[in-house]
Specification:
hpI Integrase, Chain A, mainly alpha, 3 strands, three-stranded antiparallel sheet, 5% strand, 2 domains
């Protein structure tokens, strides 16, 4: 019986990235890591499956010794390893935190209703000598972020055509790993945005 020839790690990486990008994932920095690992694997262990030891060897051979960066390199391979395991059952998925966390996140601050009210009052009190809409724009953006959970970058990129008052929806453009999506709006938010649009 003829033995099946496994594709190279580089071919697997290209197939995986093409598949994920068709689904809308950009994978820019992760894609670079995966391609770099695939070239390394084909050079160091040609024809071998993706193993945790090989992934760790590649991740820790970086010139940078910052553990967060090394962990991010290893983390970039995790979903690719799952993909490889569907093709070759010998493939291993590296465990999480083998090197440590990839990102040291600060504890988020959840604004209270009182704090949001204070920020809105301060925004409405901004000087308007350059534009009568200056203070109103800031107050509307802050209120919209508080009401919808939008990222600040998503809120400032919104266009007038992204607001559908009849359906009570906001069309949000893709950002980072978030795809194009529609957000349902509370009636109070719809009213505020309609008033702001009329003012503009």
């Amino acid at each position: 019986m003829a033995r099946l020839t496994m594709p190279s790690m580089f071919d697997l990486a290209r197939e995986y990235l093409a598949h994920r990008r068709k689904l809308g994932f950009k994978l820019s920095s992760q894609g670079q890591h995966i391609i770099a690992f695939a070239r390394f694997a084909d050079r160091v262990a040609p024809g071998q499956p993706l193993k945790t030891a090989l992934a760790l060897q590649w991740a820790t051979e970086s010139k940078s010794q910052y553990r967060g960066y090394l962990a991010a390199r290893l983390g970039a391979l995790r979903n690719f390893a799952r993909y490889c395991a569907t093709i070759d059952p010998r493939a291993e998925v590296p465990g999480q935190r083998l090197i440590g966390p990839s990102i040291q996140r600060r504890t988020p601050h959840i604004y209270s209703a009182r704090e949001i009210g204070l920020i809105l009052r301060q925004a409405r009190a901004l000087p308007t000598q350059h534009s009568p809409l200056h203070a109103r724009t800031y107050a509307t953006i802050v209120g919209l972020i508080a009401a919808t959970g939008l990222r600040p970058t998503e809120a400032v990129r919104l266009r007038l055509i992204d607001f559908d008052p009849l359906a009570g929806l906001l069309h949000v453009l893709p950002a980072k790993t978030s795809p194009l999506r529609q957000l349902p709006l509370h009636t109070s938010v719809v009213r505020t945005l309609q008033n702001y649009r009329r003012a503009r």
